[in-house]
Amino acid sequence: MSHLSILPTVLRDAEALAATLASLDLPWRWGGELVGFAGERQAVTLQLQLRDGQGLGWAAMDDGSLALVGDLQRLSRSTALQRLLGRITRAYAARVALQEARLAVPTASIELRV
């Protein structure tokens, strides 16, 4: 029996995550709930619908981070999902780094290409 799990991440900016998901052409949306085994529900800040019908979400934590929410027991067996999470994390990190660079050097011309 699997259930929804909450996994801490280093992601902190929901807007940057949403922009990252959009730039990767992933079907995401704001808010809602993920439903797990036996009707278990977890509210999320934003969520991503996977091709197999499963969902992943990110929920805001008290410390300001975004925790990954999903049926991680089932999803952890998927190498495709592991690659997808790696792509999302790398693209998010690049986006946030460039945002910070824009603030540090406002006269520079900086753009992100994914």
Question: Care to describe what's here?
Answer:
- There is one protein chain.
- Helix 1 (14-23) crosses helix 3.
- The chain has helices at 14-23, 72-75, 79-104; strands at residues 5-7, 28-30, 33-35, 41-43, 46-49, 55-60, 66-70.
- The chain is 35% helix and 24% strand.
- It has 114 residues and is an alpha+beta fold.
Structural descriptors:
3 helices; single chain; 7 strands; elongated; 35% helix; 114 residues
Task: Describe the structure concisely.
This protein is α+β, with helices and mostly antiparallel strands and 114 residues long.
Provide the residue-averaged pLDDT. 88
- Helix-strand pattern, N to C? EHEEEEEEHH
Strand order of the largest sheet: 1-7-6-5-2
Structural class from helices and strands?
Answer: alpha+beta
Question: What is the number of helical segments per DSSP (H or I, 4+ residues)?
Answer: 3
User: Fraction of residues in helices?
Assistant: 25-40%
Uncertain ranges: none
How does the major sheet shape up? 5 strands, antiparallel
% residues in beta strands: 15-25%
Tell me which oligomeric state these chains represent. Answer: single chain
Distance between the termini: 37 Å
The value of Rg in angstroms is 15 Å
General form: elongated
